[in-house]
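For the sake of clarity, the format in which proteins appear in this thesis is described at this point. The fold follows as a row of integers, each naming the local backbone shape at the matching residue. One such record is shown here in full, so that the layout can be seen directly:
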Amino acid sequence: MIQLENISWKTGDRVILADATIEIPANTYAVLMGSTGCGKTTLLEILCGLRSPTTGRVRLDGLDVTDLEPRDRGIGYVPQDLALFPGLKVRDQIAFAPKLRGIPPAEIESRVGRLAQQFGITHLLDRLPDMLSGGEKQRVALARALAAQPKLLLLDEPLSALDEGMRSEAVALLQRVQREHSLTVLHVTHSSSEAAALGHLHLRMNAGRLEVS
């Protein structure tokens, strides 16, 4: 469960978020829409700990995580640019977070193998990011986000770089991943068709506030 309580964030005199409050039940696929620059990405970054809110609290499964480091929040995050590490092979991309958490090497290898199989990227494990297509990079980024076995997955325009033919396949993949991993998902998108296909809960950012749409 995600609980945002009176979250605000501003830069200089510009208010980006103003008293954003919402509750997203566990195992829900929530989609968030809103105009460009309205604060959607800022909200995701506050949730995963990359930004601190000016005011307000963030709670995950009842635990106040507002002051916790990103690695201690149990969150997987896929930013809009996917942010793959250019010098790491796919297997090392997926293994990155478990290594940081001190997971034993045998368990890391097992996780990498399972996720690679689930996402259909086993044959890509020894490739670098610049050898991957857009769809392959997306699958690697999702596998990397799930390698630490998070309860919450944050997705920032994850399908924006895909052409229309690949989007339907990607939507089906996200539905399956959410179901099989019992995830709570918050997915930012500008696509109404994407939101309709995926969302159990539809949210909109309006003047820095969150609304159920």
Strands lie at 2-11, 14-24, 29-33, 55-60, 63-64, 75-78, 152-156, 184-188, 201-206, 209-212. The longest strand covers residues 14-24.
